[in-house]
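hey so i finally got around to running the thing on that chain from the lab meeting. sorry it took forever, my laptop kept dying and i had to restart like 3 times. anyway pasting the input first so we r on the same page abt which one it is
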Amino acid sequence: MFERPQSGERAILVHIEFRTDDKREELDEFRELVVSAGAEPLHVITGTRQRPDPKYFVGSGKAEEIRDAVKNHKAEVVLFNHALSPGQERNLEGLLKCRVLDRTGLILDIFAQRAKSHEGKLQVELAQLKHLSTRLIRGWTHLERQKGGIGLRGPGETQLESDRRMLGIRIKQLKKRLAKVQSQRQQSRRSRQRNDVLTVSLVGYTNAGKSTLFNRLTGADVYQADQLFATLDPTLRRVNLFQDEHIILADTVGFIRHLPHDLVAAFRSTLEETCEADLLLHVIDASNEQREACIEQVNDVLKQIDADEIPQIEIYNKIDAMERVEPRIDYDEQGQARRIWCSAKTGAGIDQLKEVLLRTLRENHCHEPKIGASDDEIEQDDATSVEQVG
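ok and heres what got predicted. didnt touch it at all, straight out
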């Protein structure tokens, strides 16, 4: 076995187009993922095939080309913009003599870097272990069987079986801890519901500007950056709209095309902030040429988590990056706001957005609104009391 590099920063990128693939990945987005992970793209290898090769995913000739690129550029990791099977990943590592990661592994690495809260770290570890459990190989030939001395000889347990057993134990522990966190979140939600507080959740494709909009509406200082998955842990804050009328706004992780199902499952408790919301603000990068595809991907994930029936308003953000686009509200035939054009960066159109939120709040509360959860309760909900989960 080769020595795995510690840094993994110098990377060769591999992107293959399949003629029959109707769900192809975008190369530009892949580059953004690589940069977000902290890697340095040295060289991009592209190609076209009818279907993936069972052994190397790419053909033998393309595999040799990748090996030469690794050697010439002294790369430490090869990143595929595709999902690799455990066998393909293992065969490529044996040929290339360096670490190989597929798209799912790359996203998991970014999530591991972004997770700050205890809950987020638990969720990332759970997703990583589920991914790793399919990639355990028999790499301990010198320990084929764990044998004892006289009277203790026997088939024993293989190293592979031992690794799988330990992974299974750890996965069960993580699920148990996350169940406690989920219970705490539900208690906080019930408290908000008793106080008749409208909960609005920001959803959208990664890097659409959700955190920037969140900070603009709440005055908070949530981390924001022009990179994919800048936000991972959910944050809840109060937004005062008029006197005692306010809402709770939740900022959540961004979505991406072909988000791994295990990742969606692992972040179920976080995504429940979206599932339990009264209204979704679907933040869209209006300047993105691929925005229609991004909208479709977000709606697909919302359907996966059973949040597709929640009322939704589309927020076309980043109009400051477009020419001759002014802030406005688009209404449907019933007079309901369905699309708001604004810029979270400059603040253009934010007042119109607040007016729509205030109107929605009043339509959902025919009676005199109550004063909702206190700031302390919201802060406690944000932290999810996770430090007590051990």
